[in-house]
Amino acid sequence: MSSDEELFGKVEEFFFGNDEFANTLEAFCLENCAIFTEDEEQKLEYTVVYSKYQELFEKLIEDFLKANDCTLERFHSICKAASESQDEEKLSFVNLLVMSMDYDVFLMEMQRMAEAKRSA
Q1: What is the Cα–Cα distance from 22 to 108, expressed in whole angstroms?
Q2: Structural domain of 104
Q3: Lower Cβ count inside 10 Å, N or C end of the chain?
Q4: Would the pTM count as exceeding 0.70?
């Protein structure tokens, strides 16, 4: 079993360097972005797509953790400890993970992708 420090580093490498992870999320977004518009009204369909995105994101992370003999609960504990530490690099990565799951960030990205697709 990897130490917490090693595991944190592996997840960071996976998040930033794994093409399959990035491509899977990008493909999902491209497949589902068409319904998103710049309108201020939040459509119910947005939350349905967001829930599916969350499930996919969590499954990809969870599968990676399982392959590295780690549970999601253990990783949450590692992230909690990292967020309470004075290590700015670790804190930045934890914040990035949290931001990756934020609805407003997701919404802005889907709107951006939808607009780019319509303009192409």
Answers
A1: 18
A2: 4-34+42-119
A3: C
A4: yes
